[in-house]
Write a structure and sequence with these properties.
Layout lengths: L8 E5 L7 H15 L4 E5 L21 H11 L2 E9 L2 E2 L1 H8 L3 H4 L3 E8 L6 H12 L3 E2 L4 E3 L6 E2 L2 E2 L4 H23 L8
Parallel strand pairs: 1-2, 1-3, 3-5, 5-6, 5-7
Antiparallel strand pairs: 3-4, 8-9
Pfam family, one: FMN_red
Protein name: FMN reductase
InterPro entries: Flavoprotein-like_sf (IPR029039), FMN_Rdtase-like_dom (IPR005025), NAD(P)H-dep_reductase (IPR050712)
């Protein structure tokens, strides 16, 4: 197999909670990719001023310049790792709202991965939400995903209680970078066929 050029990967951290497990794990994923030689960037939604999406995904939002920051960061990346929390059986609102501010021109043909921290037992509700949303944006979601049950106690001093968690995060991150690099090489940046 011919090696591909490093893929640029954007991490979007959607949790609003200080000391967030999902944010900590997203940072780990990006550090792993940076150490592997991939250009990475983090967008922490706690640091952006984004409006509630009004359904017009092309609205320029002149009073909210961070909308353009978000859109251009996604457009410039080969791959995107979404990371957030599951609340009441679905993806947390801040992360979903940020995704709703995107349109095909920003995300089509990109490769996505997902990390979700849950307050209770492990399930795939929020991860499935993110998969469906990525598909509607005409993007690809890697097969792997990371759900972290009992998210508030999953880390002890920033270190996973489950010793396999970092391996799962690293595998997800590398999967996004590999697929994004391969897809970029295969499609040559040409938008996917609409169907």
């Amino acid at each position: 197999m011919t090696p591909t050029a490093p893929a640029s990967v954007l991490g979007i951290g959607g949790s609003m909670r200080p000391g967030s497990t999902s944010q900590t794990l997203l940072r780990r994923a990006l550090r792993t990719l940076a150490a592997d030689g991939h250009p990475v960037r983090l967008l922490d939604l706690r640091e952006l001023q984004l409006p509630f999406c009004n359904g017009d995904k092309r609205e320029p939002w002149p009073h909210f310049p961070d909308v353009a920051v978000l859109r251009e960061a996604v457009r410039a990346a080969d791959g995107i790792i979404l990371s957030g929390a599951e609340y009441h059986g679905g993806v947390n609102g801040a992360l979903k709202n940020a995704i709703d501010l995107l349109d095909f021109e920003h995300a089509e043909g990109k490769v996505f991965g997902a990390i979700v921290a849950l307050g209770g037992r492990s399930n795939s509700n929020a991860l499935n939400d993110l998969r469906i949303t990525a598909r509607w944006l005409r993007a690809w979601m890697v097969p792997g995903q990371v759900a972290v049950p009992q998210g508030r106690t999953a880390l002890n001093g920033g270190v996973p209680v489950d010793p396999d968690l970092y391996d799962r995060i690293d595998d997800l991150a590398r999967s996004v970078a590999r697929a994004a690099g391969a897809l970029r090489t295969t499609t040559g940046g040409i938008p996917l066929a609409r169907g």
